[in-house]
Amino acid sequence: MNYSSRYLEKAVEEIGNLPGIGKKTALRLALHLLKKEKRDVEVLSSSLLELKEKVIYCQSCGNLSDRTTCEICSNPHRDQSLVCVIEDIRDVMAIENTGQYKGIYHVLGGVISPMEGIGPSELNIDQLLNKSREGLVREIIFGLGTTMEGETTTFYLYKKLAGFDIKLSSIARGIAMGDQLEYADELTLARSIAQRVPYESSFHQNQNS
Known about the structure:
Blueprint: H1 6-16, H2 23-35, H3 38-54, E1 56-57, E2 64-65, E3 79-86, H4 89-96, E4 103-107, H5 126-133, E5 139-142, H6 148-161, E6 167-170, H7 186-194, E7 197-198, H8 199-208
Parallel strand pairs: 3-4, 3-5, 5-6
Antiparallel strand pairs: 1-2, 6-7
Helix pairs in contact: 1-2
């Protein structure tokens, strides 16, 4: 593509590095920003810098937060003994949007994927095991997606946690096989959590299906 300005070309190149943004969309966004007032662009730039510099991970659950402990973990009205294990913060947002879940979360930061070189040591698993050893957890809900990687990760966690005196459950199969939580509608997701089943039952069902 022939650009009339090297500054425009640079902007398009940087915007195009964002996931899901092609060159044409990057050009459209760059031209849109060019038409905006300087103050508006400065506000956008400042918000992105603050995002990078000030957002941290909750020391308790791994969720994104402005403080060392996120608002969910520090909320006295949440059930601290009920933990939903999910892949990333988009799943936290999806479940919170249902307004039905009153426990806390544990964000793994991904799923086991040998093809991508992601093993258990790359995930936030040790902190979950430590909580379980300390007797702080009554029930763990496996809320990972039903992809092959999600199921593999869930089974790995089940084997690690099976020796603890903790109820291990899995969201009900309102979430179809191969689906990610973030794409489920709120009603389906809320029902799947409310109608969760013991993990052993869901595992045997998957083996027989």
